[in-house]
Specification:
The complex is a heterodimer of chains A (103) and B (262). A 3-stranded antiparallel beta sheet of chain A has the order 2-1-3, with helices on one face. Chain A contains 3 helices and 3 strands; from the N terminus they run αββαβα. Chain A is an alpha+beta fold and 103 residues long. Chain A starts with a helix and ends in a 23-residue tail after the last helix. Chain A is flat. Chain B is mainly α and 262 residues long. Helix content of chain B is 61%, strand content 0%. Chain B has 10 helices and no strands. Chain B is globular and about 55 Å long. Chain B starts with 14 loop residues before the first helix and ends in a 6-residue tail after the last helix. In chain B, 45% of the residues are buried. Classes of the chains: A alpha+beta (103), B mainly alpha (262). At the A-B interface, α2 of A face α2 and α6 of B.
């Protein structure tokens, strides 16, 4: 696609929104998918129509996909690998001293 | 399923049956019209939105037609009433049978009709007919969303580009002639309203107009006064040209394969 054509396409397409739904009170919002909409109000209503048709939720967040900064797959090793052998970061690593209650 | 050989024509039925059929026919015909957008809406998300609205209306229609069948007590169930009545036995208003045309026509039709259903069901929850009251209580939440959905689009298109403004204005003008019929209450309806079964639709006009005027003003559009008014008659089984085609499409499968099921 030529550059002007790509720009034209970008202008015609609605921006992308990420949708988060809270399934019930007390739980946190979870990512359920994404959709295209012209603005936040439209995004919210479309999210309601597309993602809560079967009573999946009691609350919806929509976030412009462009606002999300994501970790890159290329950085997977330096980001996540180092946590692999740090067993002492899990509470189960520690033995409870005798006589400690309420833990 | 029992199908009577020669069911009475709708306008000869007892008033409560006719009244429930009117509401059910409105919902079913508009559901069918909205279904025409399935897989053809301007955006995937809007496709789902319109289909959801159609399915809400279909649900209302099923409850209402089943109730009408029970009131009539002549062996007709929801399927018999939906698929085996001819044009003159349908008593929906003509607004709901108007072709969706372009998206703006569809949205104008939806704004006018959902705002009407909102006022209607909001009062029908107090009906002494408990089934009607229960259907209304469930449906009023649905139509509140339908009304909001339509209003959002009217404002968006009206207050959008030059082209969308012109097309939304044309949509309003195309549907406006069919609005009058929504608020004509005949003797049958007034009688039932006196018994607190029905709602007198003439009383819905003022609050309806207030809502529509607010939306139209926010959308920088206008209601053109002095447009022609359709002669109406839907409640007596008089329909516009395209209605027969709609029925043919909706009923053909059931008539070709009686009792067909998924």
């Amino acid at each position: 696609m030529t550059e002007p054509a790509a720009k034209e396409q970008a202008r015609r397409e609605w921006p992308l929104w990420e949708v988060f739904v809270r399934s019930k009170r007390g739980l946190s919002h979870g990512h359920v998918g994404s959709l295209h909409a012209a603005d936040p109000e439209m995004a919210l209503r479309m999210a309601r129509d597309v993602y809560t048709r079967r009573q999946e939720g009691v609350s919806i967040w929509v976030v412009p996909a462009a606002s999300i900064t994501a970790s890159s797959p290329d950085e997977k090793d330096p980001f996540f690998e180092p946590a692999g052998d740090k067993v002492y970061r899990h509470p189960t690593f520690y033995d409870l001293p005798e006589g400690v209650e309420h833990l | 399923m029992t199908v009577p050989t020669s069911p009475a024509s709708t306008v000869e039925l007892a008033p409560p049956v006719q009244y429930v059929l009117r509401l059910g026919d409105d919902a079913l015909v508009l559901a069918q019209r909205l279904g025409e957008w399935s897989a053809k809406a301007p955006e995937l998300e809007e496709d789902v939105a319109l289909t959801n609205i159609a399915l809400d209306l279909l649900g209302q229609a099923r409850a209402l037609l089943s109730h009408a069948g029970r009131l009539e007590d002549a062996g007709r169930d929801e399927d018999a009433l939906a698929f085996l009545r001819d044009e003159r036995d349908w008593v929906n208003v003509q607004l709901v049978e108007q072709p969706g045309g372009d998206f703006a026509d569809t949205i104008a039709r939806q704004l006018f009709f959902s705002a009407y259903q909102y006022e209607l069901y909001g009062r029908l929850v107090d009906s002494v007919d408990e089934t009607l009251a229960a259907v209304a209580a469930k449906a009023v939440k649905e139509v509140t969303y339908h009304r909001d959905h339509a209003a959002q689009w009217v404002v968006r298109l009206g207050d959008g580009t030059e082209v969308s403004h012109a097309r939304m204005q044309a949509g309003l003008e195309r549907m406006w002639p069919y609005v009058g019929e929504l608020f004509v209450s005949d003797e049958l309806e007034r009688g039932l309203a006196g018994q607190r079964i029905a709602v007198d639709s003439a009383k819905l006009r003022a609050p309806w107009r207030q809502f529509v005027d607010d939306v139209v003003a926010e959308a920088t559009l206008s209601i053109t006064e002095g447009l022609w008014t359709a002669p109406g008659g839907g409640r007596r089984g008089i329909h516009t040209e395209s209605f027969g085609y709609l029925l043919a499409e909706m009923q053909h499968l059931h008539r070709s394969y009686p009792g067909a099921r998924w």
